[in-house]
Amino acid sequence: MTIQFAPTLQGAAAPAVIVNGLRRAYGDRTVIEGLDLRIERGEFVALLGESGCGKTTLLRALAGLDPIQAGRIIAPRRPAVVFQEHRLLPWDSLWRNVALGLETPDARARAGAALAEVGLGDRLDDWPRNLSGGQAQRVALARALVQQPELLLLDEPFAALDALTRIRMHALVRELVANHRPGVLLVTHDVDEAIALADRILVMRDGRIAYEHRSHGNSKVARDDLLAELGVLSAHTPA
Ligand SMILES: Nc1ncnc2c1ncn2[C@@H]1O[C@H](COP(=O)(O)OP(=O)(O)OP(=O)(O)O)[C@@H](O)[C@H]1O
């Protein structure tokens, strides 16, 4: 059993994904058990959790990359995914990398528009080897968004970037998500990144969503609560 694609969820008001009672195991080792999750279109959700708690396992299941052992994942179409590494094909030009999977005659034009959106509109015929890490991640974002996904899955896409580039990428992602309005699930280790970007922050523990935080503007309280949930800090320690 794997993800089900339900064309009935195609309407603009339909959720980006619904997960019920998900179980995912590697052999007899269960990593996700009884997990429920719903992400709306246009909603930016961040997923935190201790290393090894199953964040990437969940993201891969949502992407339809791995089988699941129980439960349901329903989405309108296959989600788009951006990983920590850009995964660009070195033998293809940038526009061909972005157009991968587009089988329309206007593929180059659409790839060009997506590259322009990430600030690389003058590099269509350039090669992945000529890009910095941040530029390569921007191409990976363009490749995801050119599909006009209802759900965008981001697995630590900024983790390998320097601090300044990461801040620029945050601004870009916020802008792209505001324009395209996919539901987003961002897996990150960075509490501050989650607070900066997400409308809703989830903490995963014991194979399910153990804590949910909705953005309320007081980022100091949010940070302390989240660090407490992650077992790093007692709640509301004085600064
Ligand atoms: N292909 C696999 N085969 C067997 N076990 C796996 C496989 N992939 C992951 N696991 C195990 O599943 C558990 C969850 O791994 P996962 O990578 O989802 O965690 P994570 O929360 O994303 O971790 P991190 O934050 O360190 O990236 C870990 O104990 C890991 O060892």
TrEMBL record:
GO molecular function: ATP binding
ABC transporter domain mapped to chain residues: 17-231
Keywords in alphabetical order: ATP-binding, Cell membrane, Membrane, Nucleotide-binding, Translocase, Transport
UniProt key word DNA-binding: no
Top-level taxon of the source organism: Bacteria
InterPro entries tied to this protein: AAA+_ATPase, ABC_transporter-like_ATP-bd, ABC_transporter-like_CS, ABC_transporter_ATP-bind, P-loop_NTPase
Pfam families membership: ABC_tran (PF00005)
Role: Involved in beta-(1-->2)glucan export. Transmembrane domains (TMD) form a pore in the inner membrane and the ATP-binding domain (NBD) is responsible for energy generation.
UniProt similarity note: Belongs to the ABC transporter superfamily.
PANTHER family: ALIPHATIC SULFONATES IMPORT ATP-BINDING PROTEIN SSUB, TAURINE IMPORT ATP-BINDING PROTEIN-RELATED
Protein name: ABC transporter ATP-binding protein
Source species of the chain: Bradyrhizobium ontarionense
Upper lineage: Bacteria, Pseudomonadati, Pseudomonadota, Alphaproteobacteria, Hyphomicrobiales
